[in-house]
UniProtKB/TrEMBL annotation:
Pfam families (alphabetical): TPR_10
Name the UniProt record assigns to this protein: Kinesin light chain
Coiled coil: none
InterPro entries associated with the record: NLR-like (IPR053137), TPR-like_helical_dom_sf (IPR011990)
Amino acid sequence: METRKTKLGANHPDTLSSMANLAFTWKSQGRHANALALMEDCTQAQRRVLGQKHPETLSSLATVAKWSS
């Protein structure tokens, strides 16, 4: 994710995908709080960059809701 941030920028769609992927990895490693925080950051950025109704944004929002419950 950091490499993509450096090469593409923090708001590039590929960087945002990497953020989401890292959040899922952390979740699977038991790092629940870190995963949720990163997915929340990712969702905020996706709303700005991709829009509220973009499929990736909606998927991330659903993930945050699931992980928060």
